[in-house]
Amino acid sequence: MIEAKNVNFYYGDFHALKDINMTMETNTVTAFIGPSGCGKSTFLRLFNRMNDLIPGTRLEGQCLIDGEDIYAKSLRVDDLRKRVGMVFQKPNPFPKSIFENVAYGLRVNGVKDRAFIAQRVEESLRGAALWDEVKDKLKKSAFELSGGQQQRLCIARALAVSPSILLMDEPASALDPISTSKVEELIHSLKKDYTIVIVTHNMQQAARVSDKTGFFMLGELVEYNDTKKMFLNPDKVQTQNYITGRFG
Amino acid sequence: MMSKKTSQNIAFWVFRILGLVVVAILFWILGFIIYHGAGVINWKFLTTAPTDGMTGGGIFPAIVGTFCLIVGSMVVAFPLGVMSAIYTTEYAGNGKLVRFIRIMTNNLGSIPSIIFGLFGMALFVNALGFGDSIIAGSFTLGLLVLPLVIRTTEEALKAIPDSFRTGSLALGATKLQTIRRVILPMAFPNITTGLILSIGRVSGETAPILFTVAAYFLPKLPTSIYDQVMALPYHLYVIATSGTDLEATRPIAYGTALVLIIIVLLMNLLASFLRRHFGKKVKTN
Ligand SMILES: Nc1ncnc2c1ncn2[C@@H]1O[C@H](COP(=O)(O)OP(=O)(O)OP(=O)(O)O)[C@@H](O)[C@H]1O
Ligand SMILES: [Mg+2]
Questions:
Q1: What is the Cα–Cα distance from B130 to B118, expressed in whole angstroms?
Q2: How much is the pLDDT for A247?
Q3: Atom 3, ligand 1: which residue's CA is nearest?
Q4: Residue B171: which of A55, A95, A157 has the nearest Cβ?
Q5: Contact A125/A154 with Cβ under 8 angstroms?
Q6: What CATH number matches the domain at A29-38+76-243, 3.40.50.1220, 3.40.50.300, 3.40.50.1820, 3.20.20.70?
Q7: pLDDT under 70 in chain A at which residues?
Q8: In the structure, what pLDDT confidence band is assigned to residue B281 with cuts at 50, 70 and 90?
Q9: pTM (2 decimals)?
Q10: From ligand 1's centre to the CA of A36, what distance in Å?
Q11: Can you give the residue ranges of every domain in chain B?
Q12: What pLDDT, in 10s, does the model give residues B97-129?
């Protein structure tokens, strides 16, 4: 379970997230939608503390994962990031072989057992629905894969360290329709093992993959509801306008 | 009044001629040295010591000495330069201290090399008691090229997109792991280019080795880092200005110059080849 309690976030003087309260249940898919610059990525990055890398930022309020304050002093950021995986908008595989890309998270974890690594690599690639396409060329450079395959490789890479949560920031926006639908199917199948949060600009995609949807505007969480209700009969008029505007 | 077109044409030709003049001078120098020096270069010249008051024999000890100084100065400058570049680009952010360090390294790079020679003599030869030695010369040359190593390494690191850093950190890698396993391997070709450029620089410098290592005449090869050595640029200076019989040593001087030029040119060619070769590779990803 992921919780945000009275979260305010600042880039210097800029108030990017305003008093957000939100709870995301385990083994659900939550979609964040909203106009560009409304703070979706900023909010998402709070949960694996990637915002820590940006100088001059400040967080107020609490972010909890299974009840634990992930900004507590005693918590190690690299441990948190092993539990909370992230997939980026643009596929960013390392200039290494396909195998080494997936093994990377294990290796930096100090895992040395070759057989275990090989097994985890296969499981992760299967989990990311990429195994059949790459099983004969694991030693090839990851750059030889297509964009869609690279993105699924990045998902496999994130799965390899056995996180419980997957954060995805517009994971399909750089992909063609076929690759996109593959990634969407993948999200479906991952749901039983992972808690997934996905940012998307594609309303149909949010409607297809998510259980709940949060609509953000100007740093505020305007509405957070079951996806069905959100798209059929939202509580707020801004949500209605945004969704229909995008569809129409 | 001239028409606009004509004046532009004239300007164009002036620039073109000036450009050609520069190239012509360069080739003239090269051709001159090849013309006078190529004749003396043979296997014996490259593998024997000078004889007959340096009017005969070869330049082997100077080649060996220059080689020792290249290796020594790189051992000094490379780890130090790469580590400080890692610090300034990956760790230090953009605070006052880093800007200060950057300005100082740039200043260090514009100090005349004779000053490095004097400093090296004061510090390494005298204060630290190394005497005239390979180690004193290596430290002096190492300091001289440190700014170059730092700058090329910084540029190599900055050329790597942040998405690789965030990708690695997001998998739970520490910053150090990210640098060691992802960033440095990617930056390696460009860092190597900097290394090779520094080798070119080191092999041609005379002033820094003048008071710290270079021997006037020392046919014996060094056996430890506390020995003096001959070195190509200084040897050239010696036989061109203070030999016993300047006329007789002239061909040897040109031969030495040619060997030196070939080493420096090869290093620069290798560097630009590497840069182009790997530059392409990184772009296609
Ligand atoms: N590194 C940063 N420094 C300063 N301001 C930032 C930074 N990153 C984002 N912002 C600002 O914070 C606000 C929210 O940005 P964010 O990237 O979270 O939006 P988003 O909803 O993900 O937008 P998009 O749909 O375009 O990805 C924007 O106004 C943006 O300008
Ligand atoms: Mg975004």
A1: 14
A2: 42
A3: A11
A4: A157
A5: no
A6: 3.40.50.300
A7: 246-248
A8: low
A9: 0.84
A10: 8
A11: 57-284
A12: 888 888 888 888 889 999 999 999 999 999 999
